[in-house]
Specification:
Adenylosuccinate lyase; two-stranded antiparallel ribbon; two-stranded antiparallel sheet; 59% helix; elongated; L-Aspartase-like; Fumarase C, Chain A, domain 2; mainly alpha; 537 residues; disordered N terminus; Ribonucleotide Reductase Protein R1, domain 1; purine biosynthesis; Fumarase C, Chain B, domain 1; lyase
Length: 537
Amino acid sequence: MSDPIGPAHEQRRPSQSEPAGLPVQDQQPIKIARRPSASNGSTGKDSIVTTANISSEDRGKYRSPLVSRYASPEMSYNFSELKKFSTWRRLWFWLAKCQKQLGLDITDEQLDEMEKNVTNIDFDIAEAEERRRRHDVMAHVHTFARCCPKASPIIHLGATSAFVGDNADLIVMRDGFELLINKLIRCIQRLTDFAREYACLPTLGYTHMQPAQLTTVGKRACIWIQDLLMDLKNFERVRRQLKFRGVKGTTGTQASFLQLFNGDHSKVEDLDRMVTEMAGFSKAFIICGQTYTRKLDVEVVSVLSSFGGTIHKMCTDIRLLASLKEIEEPFEIEQIGSSAMPYKRNPMRCERCCSLARHLMILVNDPLSTHSVQWMERTLDDSANKRICIPEAFLTADIILTTLLNISEGLVVYPKVIDKHIKQELPFMATENIIMAMVSAGGNRQECHEKIRTLSQKSAERVKMEGLDNDLVERVKVDPYFAPIVNKLDVLLDAKTFIGRAPEQVYEFISREVEPTLKNFAMAATSNTSKPTELAV
């Protein structure tokens, strides 16, 4: 069977602390004893789950749309059973290898047997063992031992369940952030190109969702990019600061390992450090209960939920602009907007992002509540909640980013519609400029103000009561009072004189903040940037 871990690792940004052999170990051929489940998001030819190979039995069960409908193969695989339990086995192998190096009676033959069977998982046996023992970790200890009879006596030696459970979760979260960071960089790149292209195109600004002073299309995009940059830095900060649980024992005291090494504290410390480094982490928690502190999960999901807020704001902006027919998300040739109204061009991509973002934003309540009730060294009521919350947070963020990539690659701008809306509002906004021009021509400021006020009210009544266009400029042109400045009106009403420093701000923001940030992620920024992003559905 082809290796389902490959595509995810092609996009990985190697950690500086990651030891050289880790990717090679991760890319061993996968052997599996039964048909992959729908949760296996592998991209191998024989194992990818498509609508063609979903069984009738599976279609008779609930399947989370996060995986069955939306998520990328890479992120689906990252939270799959295959990734989880092969990582457990890899952790057991690393533990035994380091224990041997530190002097325990473990043979090369035992290690070789464990390493060869890291991905040879019989899930049917594992499920039967768990039904029998009501303990997922011991079920997989016994399943691993069946294909490693020589290594059976030393599997899980000195460890507690959290050794594989927590450490595997930390590996998965680290890898999940790497996938998200890669996509987020590409989104920022696309939107930066968009902002640069439209840096000088005037458009109505809106405050309180009412027309306000002009800005530019590119400047508004920079507001979105600025929030995404904050999310990018948050993702990278949390990924970089993730600590390994390491080798800590049942209540975090390392007592079992101290006993294994006959009271030699230095060997226990070396074991913890060596396993941590083999897993690709530079640091491990010094203090643990049975588990790593669940406050870490709060931190992880918090930055993902915060990202959800960014997306909801941005995609709501695009939806509102689409209703004004100024900007649209991509719309495919055969895409149908409405089953009843053939003319509709609904912003379904942005609507999907907003829908998923709402789910992502509330997920932070789960780890917050879980952390608050972890009595003493640990309680097991974190487990079932964590199995749902953490994968859903990463899967949802991944889906949003895939959709946002598709949006950012094909945003359509309608300059003539934008200009029409400007012309409807600009005469009112230009009244102060007209007054200043009249004063410069020798007029009285108060007298001019009253003239403009009277004409503006009549024009506004025409717009609101009769549904006609704003004719304030025409009224000014035919009023003899304003004869001294009539020949200057075109200059006074040039939209580009109302956008302030918006273009300069765009170029400065890109050069001083966006480009230096993306330069720090050069490897990810140059990978697969030319390939268009397609939606799953």
